[in-house]
Structures are given as C-alpha cells and as structure tokens.
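Q: What would this complex look like in 3D?
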Amino acid sequence: MITVKELTKTFKDGDKETRVLKGVDFEAPNGDFIAIMGRSGAGKSTFLYQMSLLDIPTSGQIIIDGSDVSSLSSAEKTKFRLERLGYVFQDYALLPDLTAIENVALPLLMLGETKKQAYKHAQDMLTQVGLGHRIDNLPSEMSGGEQQRVSVARAIVHKPKILFADEPTANLDNISSKQVMEIFKELNAGGQTIIMVTHEEEYAQAAKRIVRLDDGRIVS
Amino acid sequence: MFWLDIKIAWFMATRQIMRSNIWTTLLIVGVMTLTSLNLIVISGILVGLIEGSVQANKNYYTGDVIVSKLEEKEYIENSNAVISQIKNIDGVKNYSARYLDGVSIEANYRTRTDDTKQPDVASAQAVGINPEQEDALTGISKFVVEGEYLTSQDYDKVLIGAYLLKKYLPVDSPGFAALENIGPGTKIRISFGTTTREFTVKGILKAKVDELTTRVYFVDSQLRGLIGREDFNVDEISVVLDPNINPSDVTNRLLAAGVGSVAKVQTFSEAEPKFLKDIKATFALLGNAISSIGLAVASITVFIVIFINAITRRKFIGIAKGIGISGRAIELSYVMQSFFYAICGSVIGLLMVYGFLEPYFAANPIDFPFSDGILVAPVFETGVRVGLLIFATIIAGYVPARMIVRKNTLDSILGRN
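A: Here is my prediction, written as structure tokens for the whole assembly.
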C-alpha cells in the first residue's frame, strides 16, 4: 500500500520557481494497477519519480506499507528501492556493458544471491518475458521491444512490492507495446502492484484505475 | 555489506573493462605505461649519470678496495708486507700497486725562442705502474686515444693524461695550466724535485675518470729509481675482489691485521671523491623532484580519464543507483578500473625497464661528457615509485566517481545539472 500526502515539488532555476506538484494526495492499495495520465507538463512523470524515491519532494509524505519513506537518507532510499521497488523506464535504461542476463541478475546479486542463483532466476525471468534465447546479448544487440522486456524482467526479478513504469511503451512499436502491456496485465493478475505513467489511452485501459493529473493536481 | 559491495563492484568493473573500446583501453594503458616509465626512467637516468662515474671510478681506478698512504706519510711503509696480506685474503682476485709523486712537466722547450715568455709548464701527478698488472686490473689501455699503451720494457716513455693537454681541455684557467702541441712522439721534460729528465710521449690517455686523465704514467721500475723508492714502498694499492665478496669484509680484515697503522684502507664507496657524493645526492634530490611532478601529472591524467569516463557514464551510474546498487559499489567499480589501468601500465613499464632498458643501457651507456650514464632502477625504490603511482591512480579514480555518485539519482538518469 502506498499513500501520498500533500506532496509538492518545486523546481528552482535561479530566482525562478516552478511548482510542478501542488499538494497531491494519492493512495494505491496492494495489487492495484494504476495508470497516471495527463497532458504534457501536467507533472505525471515528476509525481512518479517522487513516489518511487528517485527524486526528493519539496514537501509532503510518502508512506509505503506504513513507513514514511520520504525522510530516509539517500543510502537508505537506495536500499529501499532495491528491496521493495521496481522500475521500467521510458528509454529502457539498461546498463550497456552488461548482457541481458547480467542486467537482470544485478539487483539479485546486490541482494546477496550467489552468482549461480542470480543467473538462474534471471534466466527464468527472461524466459518468462519471451527472451530466453537472448540472455547473452548486449542491449546494443537487441531491438527496442526486446530491451524494454529485459527492463521489465530486471524490474520484477526481485519481486518488488510496487512496480513503477514511466511511459513504458513510448519508444516501442505497436506489437512490442502490446507485448509489454500483456506482461503487465499478467503480473497484476498475479498480485503485483503497478503504477504506470502513460499518455496513450489505449494502454491506460489495461489498468484497473486511471488517475488524471492537470497542472500539478489530481483532477480525477 | 562491504564484501557485497566489492563483489558487485568487481562484477561491474570487469565487464566495463572487457566490453569497453579496445583502443580507449590501450590509450589509457599506454598513458599509464609512459607515466610509470617517466617515474622510473627519468630519475634512474639522473642517478645513473652519476652512478656511471662512480662505477668508472671503481672499475678504472680504485677497484673494490683501495689502500693508500696515510696523509702524514710519504708512502705506505712496509708495502711488501701489506701486499702479502692483501694477496692472502680469500676472494682477492687481483691488485695493482702504484708509485705516486708530484712532478712538473714542460713542453715546447725546444721551440721556445723568447726567454721573456713563460715556459709551457704544467703540474701533474706521476704514477709508476706495472703496465700489464695495471691493465689486467683496470683495463686502462682501452682509454689510450692517441699513440700506444706502455709495456714493461719501455724506458723514458710516458703516457700522459688528456686533461693535462690543451687540445683535450681547452680551459684557460689561471689556476690550471695545460700543455700545447703534445702528441705521440713529442719530447717533454719532467722534473722530480731537483732532477729533470727528458721523456717521449708514447700515448695519450683519456677516460671519464679525472684521476686517470690528470696523471702521467711511467713504468714502475723507472719511476722507482727516479723518486728514490728502491725499498719498493708504494703509495696506493687498488684491489679487485671476486664478485661475491663484500668489500667491507676485506677492509675489516686488513684493519684487523694492523694495516690501518701504515695505510688508509677504504672500500670504493668510502673512497668516492666528495664532489661525486655531493652530485649523487643532488641528482637523487632532482630525480625525486621530477618524479613528484611526474606523479602529480599521472594523478591528474588518471583523474581526467576516469572523470570523463564517469561523466559519460553518469546516466548509467544514475540507473545503477536507481535500481538499488549502492553508491559504494559503484565507486569501488571505478576504483577497480583505475587499479587495473595502473597495474597494466606499471607492469608493462617494469617489464620495459628490467627486460629491456636497464640491460640495454648497461651494455650501451649514454655518452655524457663526464660519465657513461646507465639506468639505475633499484628494485625497492622502483617498487615504492610504482606503489605511489598505483595509490595516486586509485585516489584519482575514486574522487571523480565519488563526485558523480553523490549527485541526485534522477538528475544523473535524466542528464540534468
């Protein structure tokens, strides 16, 4: 369960201040699948970054499973992300020097698994997303859709409490986008909480709930 | 947790190195190799320049041990007994006994027509040697640059040191006179106290050891008679030892046998001229100063290389942090990469120094005006320099990685400042 209270985010550029989030309240129970939508500049990605602890909010609280995580130190947030959260980025964000299996195994190794265990779990996960035959390929040797599926595999291999996805289909063709959304639906069917930012109505329909942001506020 | 960080750092560092552009890796390793060579070779040549002089002084003059007359005495008393003691010490390979006396040399007296002009006169030290024994010990015959070396049968013939001749030492110093128009076959007059005798120059000797090139050499049997040493008491004895013998052990044995009461007993290093010791210390200081600059340049080079590497990978550092990789593991992965470059550069540098440069310069010394320069790279000191380089490299690798890791995770991922 994630609860957000009075969340604000202000960017400063010299004397100029831009308030992107203006006191957002939000709640997502375990097992939910939420699509955050809004026009460009509405603050949806910024909202996701604050919830997923990638950025530091200006004010407000983020409570995950009863713990206020907004006050954690940088190192504590990193550890929290490792243990509880998963990410799928718009541009896949794979580490270019690591093969598919190495990218997916990395969080598991950081969690203390042996290399053998981590590689086994990573291979299983890649097989689950349909990439069992591409485990030794570098990101540069894969298509955008394949890279995004590796990114999904990496995001869920350690069984996170919440999976965050920022425009996961923005750089993909129709077929690849549908494949990714199918994976999300299957994960959610298995109980995975997913919070996804998208501007595509078609894919937002895959979510159980749609939250719309406008001018830094939730409007519906 | 720290062990886990090391494990992850190793995992990322090895893959980054293995999959980085081969030319970039070669360039960085090349820079590190040149840097390690700069640290070792520049100071090694500076020290070697003087070490060449020290070695020449030992090989061509003092030997491993030199026994010389006490300052207040005219010669080594009871020289024969001293020589017997030297010959009886295990490990003594060879020796050469020399007679010394101060002389005055006059040249061009036959062509001098104007008595108001100063005669062409120079002061020198006369050395009486057994030519064969001296050559076997020091090999000085190879330094004869004009004419021929002496033989035991030569009479009224001398070898003259090049620095007594103006054409080899064109220095017009009021305190130091040199002779003109001297070559093999030239007649010169040499005065021993009140006795003056005419000699023929048989050869000219030029070496990068001042003691050799400022002397005039006679066959010992003739000089003995001229300076009144029919008692066979000599002025100095150079001793060469077997390679495994410590010169200090031999000097200790001679001193224990009482030789110290009639002669000064020194190892070659104790007998080094003071100016050589001073220059050696000065060049070592200079070498260290240059090495320090080299070390600073190396650190800055590695810092720039790692900084550019980290800057270009800033996004990926952000992603790694974003998926939960600890900052310490990421920093360590860059430290490991720096360590890899430093080790590769240092190992290649050391292989070049000990596998090629040191033996090459030992066989082909650099022809400096006053010494045959070699490359001196003592293992311990070289190890310290390489250790410093590796340490500096690690720090220079850590600092930029730390700077990038400390940045806001999202800013790194999005490339925001």
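A: To summarize the key features: Chain B has two domains: 2-58+276-414, 64-267. Chain B has twelve helices and twelve strands.
Q: Very helpful, thank you.
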